[in-house]
Amino acid sequence: MDIEVTYLRANVRAGLLAILSAIATIALASPSFAADPKPDAAVKNRNIDARVFLDDKIKADAPLAANCLADGKKWLDKNAADAAASRKQDPQFFKDGGWDFERKYSIRSVVADRYVSILRDDYMDTHGAHPNSDVNTILWDKAENKRISIRPFFTETADNGATMKAMVKAVIASLKIEKKKRDSGETATEDWFKGVEPSLLKIGAVTLAPSTETGKSSGLTFHYPPYAVGPYAEGQYVAFVPWETLKPYLTPEGARIFGGARPKADADEQ
Question: Where is the signal peptide (predicted)?
């Protein structure tokens, strides 16, 4: 009998050790159990908990990282000041805690080993009806170590000019396709698209789309946050304009960097 009890205890102990080992393995492998990444800049006080993250590829480029970090810190300071002012004016809205903000900078594409498209995604919770999000973009010239626009790629980009009108037409056509995919065709109306104007400053946040051809861009992608071209419930939209549509308006540099097709994986992710 003593021998049986000893075996039983040993088996129970072995079983417990196996279970604990399995739990530890899952904890290490699961993102939910992993340590949260450390923000690259943050502000945390009773009014606000705000964080900025740069992806690893951005961090590997010192001038780009410094530019994004400076931009992110300005955003932190502004929102911290706004939160403090809001608490002073309406303290009742802070009874459940302070505001929650997060900004992430991530590289979307690198074209011709020179032009870097960056997505800047924001999350904001100010204790309103629901949290909100925003998206903007940065186009970085590695050769000059500065931000640029898409102007160098087009012969003209005047407001209401031929290039911008062609872009707007293609953007709206793309948005209608995306809305149809989401069964949201009822909001594919002029009222929702009136904010997309033939102007570089009003057409939407733009990036150079990746391509099936190495070192090239397959066209332009325009990124719209909730409310920009549809109700909040529809979320963000991305419109794709293939480079062939814009071919008549390209400069020599534009002709050099555009080519190929949009990878299916990129379209599926949007």
Answer: 1-34
pTM: 0.85
* Calpha distance 222→207 (Å, rounded): 7
Buried residues in 106-138 as b, exposed as e (16+ CB within 10 A): bbbbbbeeebbbbbbbbebbbbeeeeebbbebb
Per-residue pLDDT tens digits for 249-261? 999 999 999 999 9
Spatial separation of the C-alpha atoms in residues 206 and 174, rounded to whole Å: 14
